[in-house]
Amino acid sequence: MPRPICVAPARHGLAARRRAPPSRRASRGRFDAPRAPSAPRAGSGAARDAPDAIPRGASSPTSSSSPSLPRRALLGAGAASLSLSARVSAPPPARADELFCGYYTENSSVTPQWAFKTPWAEGVVDVASATGAPNAKTFLRVLGKRETAEAAGHLPVLCLHGGPGLGFKYMDACEILASSSREVASYDQIGCARSKLDAPALSSDSTFRFSPATFASELRRVREVAGLDDVHILAHGWGAMLALDHALDPMVSGTVASLVLVSCPPSYAALCRDRRDALAALPLDVAERLLEADEKRLFADPRALRAPDSPYADAWSAWVETRESRRAAGGCYAGLSLGGAGDGAGATRDRGASDAALASAARVALDMTGGRFFTPDGALAGWEADEGGRLGELSAKVGGVRFARGTEDALSLRAAREVYDAVARAEMAPDEAGVGFESVEGAGSCVHLDASAAFLESVDQFLAAHDRGPKA
Prior knowledge:
- The longest helix is centred in the middle third of the chain and has 15 residues, at about 210-225.
- The protein has one domain (about 10-270, about 385-465): Alpha/Beta hydrolase fold, catalytic domain (Rossmann fold, 3-Layer(aba) Sandwich), CATH 3.40.50.
- The chain has a nine-stranded mixed beta sheet, with helices on both faces. The chain has a two-stranded antiparallel ribbon with strand order 1-2.
- It starts with about 30 loop residues before the first strand and ends in a 7-residue tail after the last helix.
- The chain is globular.
- The chain has helices at about 45-50, 70-75, 95-100, 105, 115, 130, 145-150, 200, 210-225, 240-245, 270-280, 285-295, 300-305, 315-325, 355-370, 395, 415-425, 445-450, 450-465; strands spanning about 30, 55, 80-85, 120-125, 135-145, 155-160, 185, 230-235, 255-260, 400-405, 435-440.
- By secondary structure, the chain is of the alpha/beta class.
């Protein structure tokens, strides 16, 4: 039986699961370079000069242990598929409240000492050959220590952000799950935030285009390189759609122990219809401006939509704070803007996205959605969760599936339940089979932001119930 976890306040729940002696500042984790007797701190000169440094969350601030053989062998076979993002620029020191952005802000509690000692590391995965995008590299971060997690029988969690065109920053609160001796991996999807593409790949002469298949190939590559053979997946919005495709993809090696899908629609067309219906709850002039922006395909142009002098900025802010997250105005949630919360190593809440990152994210949104938000268009226009009745196979392939939706989400309850019903109908007793649905009162689409404490406590219990058990 999983250990019961108390839900409120933070210091008595996940935040109390582990204790550590005080530290002067948050640990950036380690990059273990091959044959190195000890691991330098990320951002140090030694780390920047390491030829094939490996991002992993496996060494404590005083540890000199090297990567485990399976992971090192896999990375070696990848032919330098990982490199230090810190080579480009030395990141500023991180704070624990940045790593777990949202969770501690909500609970107004002092960041516990264990958060300052959680090992973590960052790097990039070469996904050019997998995706067909020239020079494409995907930013990856891993928190936690693999050896400790394996000893506890805790499988890693891979987090997939929404969009398309956002970065991971707005999901940072989900990294609090690393507190219970578990690895948590996250990445900025190709073209987004710290995984921006170079200008040549985005030029009009380039034949490269973003599609669901692009992100599917990237996800398979990230799992392969990071050694995430058996994982839980926690995903939001477009990320939940990608997670469904991934779990049912016959090309995927490795297993998915469980899925937690937040704001997952039955189809992209249904999601757009629900968004249009939700406009009725806004003032008429706000709704009209949003529809005008949709007709002009401005949802792939962050400046036209969000610049202070834009006629659409106030209307879009009203939508985000009403339907996406009621707490989105805070600094922790800059990742809800197209382009994420900055690019480069160690992007933080107060580092805005560069022009290059905005251009890259805009191309993602244009290819995937046609630059529209309330009308199905682009590569996603025909996406359906239950294409060919495939959702009936999901519970046979995944150990547990949990759907969550906020009551203020533009995605209607009827639409959200449609996906759940398609999975649950294959089971005589879906709850006993690990298939569940949760409606979170007062939350928008970003349940992990609007109800982070209670939501992540319950997710932690769900993951524990679907772990494989400690290794012998």
